[in-house]
Amino acid sequence: MEAHIHKSSLTRGMQALVGLRSAPLDEGSIWEKIEEGYLKAYPDHARMRRAINVGQLYRFLSDIKDFTATFFQKKTLLEVLLKYSVFDTSNTLLVMRPYQIAATERILWKIKSAYNAKQWNSTDGGGFIWHTTGSGKTLTSFKAARLATKLDFVDKVFFVVDRKDLDYQTMKEYQRFSPDSVNGSENTAGLKRNIEKDDNKIIVTTIQKLNNLMRGESDLPIYSKQVVFIFDECHRSQFGEAQKNLTKKFKKYYQFGFTGTPIFPQNALGAETTASVFGRELHSYVITDAIRDEKVLKFKVDYNNVRPRFKSIESEQDEKKLSAAENRKALLHPDRIREITGYILKNFPLKTHRAHMGAKGFNALFAVSSVDAAKAYYEAFRELQAELEEKKRLKVATIFSFAANEEQDAIGDIADESFEVSAMNSSAKEFLGAAIADYNAAFRTNYSVDSTGFQNYYRDLAQRVKKQEVDLLIVVGMFLTGFDAPTLNTLFVDKNLRYHGLLQAYSRTNRIYDATKTFGNIVTFRDLEQATIDAITLFGNANTKNVVLEKSYKEYMEGFTDLATGRACRGYAEVVKELQARFPDPGAIFKEQDKKDFAKLFGEYLRVENILQNYDEFTGLKALQGVDLQDPQAVEEFKAKHHLSDADIEAMRTVDVPSERLIQDYRSTYNDTRDWLRRQKDGAEKEASTLDWDDVVFEVDLLKSQEINLDYILELIFEHNKKTKNKSDLIDEVRRVIRASIGNRAKESLIVDFINQTDLDAIGDKANVIDAFFKFAQEEQRREAELLITSEGLNEEEARRYIKASLKREYATENGTALNATLPKMSPLNPQYKTKKQTVFEKISAFVEKFKGVGGQI
Question: Is the per-residue pLDDT at 504 higher than 80?
Fold first, then answer.
């Protein structure tokens, strides 16, 4: 079994069980005690997350002896491995976290106690689990459902979702955890057939299909059997007709609901709340818990108000007046639509970390108030991007459907859009058809607005958003609940959101991804500040906003003390001041202690700069560096563009911002230091390191987020050559850019040779310089491959095959026998065999690093 355990998963499981060392074991569920200790064990959890070896992890635990003694008890360990773990389809062992186990045990306990007390068919026989979005509800519900089927008296377990789009997603998730463990159904007849089968106790269905079955079938055997219902997002349709039919039809049921945003009296429109429908809260793991445990990210909310002309209507809080404004299309004024669209296009690269050409970054959702708004914005994006070249345009898509004007069950409900596109009016259907046609043209698909074609469009669109093939998705209601894509980091909002609807929509952005994604970015074009505070207070407490919402621009510039941990965090200004004072010349860092100090300090700079890139104020500050402050007209234009006053300009001038050239040099030295340390650890350097580098974390993800691609470097060569006509200066400039890059450093000599051997003046435009380079590089690749094979005396056929495979995967590997096959005929017992193999491997590795992405033939 050991071979199947994913190291990081097991480490997370061990970290999650740290609470054992303080958990009393003589009363209650052991897992509730584990969880209790887990919730108290923090405040320095971030430090433990950064532990990079077992020794550091053990040093962090205050009493590893107690931890291991408890965790490795037979009962505890067997429960973890046999009851609260699951292998996914890739044979990775997923270990449930303490709060997931505790919630599952609560459900099983409630089913058994209700059965013994004959409390079925009532709220005393059920309850709800309040686990915030992103906390792993699917795995928790899966294990609860699976374990419920093990109870002898339970006949069927229904996992019920309230939307057709979630039905597909949930089925895929269940199948990922255990293939063929679930009976799904395409329609009501299929649901009936699956209920009658005896091959599996778990049924996945939608609330709509279940309700149709109950309305159409007055007497089914299942109605009188012992049945468990587990509802996903239990605050929605279950409050209506379906709930009444369920209580009327089923005679012996137990129902449980999972929700990240329960309905309380404060946000309930009628008498019903989550507790009144499902029973009492059985377990909670709220957003503050998840943020503290680093399971989800905070939110940075930008209440954008740079449209003075429309400020009053954007700030309207009276629902009736706002509805009237929506109806008379005052919020769809063409000037307002163009201003907002222009703002998104201008700031999209910064918000999604794509400011540097070629950076992958993230993608975004745009939530709008109506189909008319979706149409207006979609057409505005098309119009404003029409003059851009293809590769610089955002790939914009949209999706919406018919939403019945039903009464809301709670304040803040996001209207439920069905897949019944036939109910849309002809204008909406025509526009949607045109948008899908654009999508088909972009991705060579063939979807349509008929029912089946639309469902397939939805599913394909969801996958392309997750793969970042779609940059911006305009939605009305779809994708704002129940959609999980870690590559999304930004939500633009031109829609009034409240309570659970607001928190659900915001939560599309706060999934953990990498070091670059430090929070979910929310940019609102309505005044949602009070609505945001009301929502996060309702689902937490008065202090929740200090945990859930990101710090202000001023705090990141000047520094702050974290209220949760008491840790002092330095601001950008102080970090920059120390960086320039201690290391004014990045090329003069030679001593190992200086290298280490620089790596830690520049890493701190990268982290704070990565966060500030999301703030409009920082965007303005960086832009100010390129303005001639002695030119009154230029200053006035800058003020108008960024909505700034004279006082704002004066304040910005006091902030020291390093030049782009200096930052490039710092990046180059940072990369050099990382490469030097790697060679030290590989034993390739003569002098051994004299310092402990374990406390230095190189921010590789942050460097990659600002990586410039090869095309940009080649275009820079073309532009710079036109200005200087001096190859020596050109090479110096290009070297600076290349060395600041991670992915292109190995191509430095190749690019310099290209400059030296090419008549750049004869190249007509940027496209031609790119073509000329690749032609040159492919010829060099062919020549150097032949030289490498000849000089090392390699088996030519096998060597070419191995090099081609390495170029395709973009790295060379010693695994398997392919490398051995390239070597000259030599016995493995020969003392020189190992040395020869290592030499060949190193040379091919360097060759691949230099020529990967070049194309051509070997």
Answer: yes
Beta bridge partners of 549: 299
Q: Would the pLDDT of 271 be above 80? A: no
What amino acid is encoded at 738 in this protein?
I
Which is it for strands 252-259 and 226-232: parallel, antiparallel or unpaired? Answer: parallel
Q: Which of 102, 172, 144 is nearest to 228 (CA)?
A: 144
Q: Which whole number is the average pLDDT over 600-613?
A: 92
> Per the structure block, which two tokens stand in for 75?
């009962």
Distance separating alpha carbons of residues 321 and 346, to the nearest angstrom: 31
Per-residue pLDDT tens for 293-314? 888 899 999 987 667 777 777 7
> Which pLDDT score, from 0 to 100, does residue 176 have?
58
Contact 789, 799 (CB under 8 A): yes
pLDDT classification of 25: cutoffs 50, 70, 90: very low
Rounded CA separation 201/194 (Å): 9
Spatial contact of 296 and 131, defined as CB atoms under 8 Å apart: no
CA dist 244 and 259 (Å) reads 20
* Separation CA 642–CA 662 (nearest Å): 26
Instruction: Give phi and psi for 183, each to the nearest 5.
Output: -95, 115
- Can you tell me the distance from the alpha carbon of 606 to that of 589, in angstroms, rounded to the nearest whole number? 18
Counting every residue, how long is the chain?
858
Q: What is the rounded CA–CA span in Å between residue 345 and residue 393? A: 9
State how far Cα 854 lies from the chain centre.
30
Following CA atoms 499, 505, 511, 516 in sequence, which dihedral angle do they give, to the nearest 10 degrees?
-110
